[in-house]
Amino acid sequence: MIPKPSPWPRLLATALLGFILLVLSTTVFAWWEIGGVRLHPIIVVAVSAGFYLPLAAGAVVVFLLGILADLLSGGFVGLQLSALMGAFLVSAALANWLDISTWPFQMIAVGLLSLAGQLMVVGGLVLAERRFLAPADYWLTVLAQAVLCAVTAPVFFFLLEKLVAAVSRVWPRRDALGGVR
Question: What is the CATH number of the domain that holds 55?
Answer without folding.
Answer: 1.10.1760.20
